[in-house]
Amino acid sequence: MAERVALDRTDRAIIAVLQENARLSNKELAARVGIAPSTCSERMRRLEAAGTFTGFHATVDPGALSIGLQAMIAVRLRRHASEEVDAFRRHAASMEEVISLSHVTGPNDFLVHVVVRDADHLRHLAVSGFTTMREVDHIETALVFEHIAKGTLPDLTA
Fold first, then answer.
1. 68 occurs within a structural domain
2. pLDDT digits (tens, 9 = 90+) for 17-33
3. pTM of the entire structure?
4. Residue 13 sits in which domain range?
């Protein structure tokens, strides 16, 4: 990972504007932030090189991709040893249905956000994808009725 850079007010303004609309041209971004396009371009290169931006993406309607259900699967491992944690993390991250993976504290070790076509797909995923792993001791599945993702991160520097 690149070395983190100190962000000034202009960098924070660039980040805020891009979190709202990452499709802006450099010229439009510069105008909204109040800087010259050449300055904006140089700052963007510096922020990207430093790893400040981890990617740009499009938000897609799940139904357009035949996603009918979302679920959170709480996973408890047999042992919380680094090799088992790493093996589970690699396995879960490789599954196309897994859209986010959180290593957590508490009675469970991971919270896994999955997307599936339907209930049969979810059952198959739970049984074939998780409970067959030797590292997994227990899973609990909760259906997601509604998922609201803000898509932006707050600036908590102050």
1. yes
2. 999 999 999 999 999 99
3. 0.83
4. 9-49
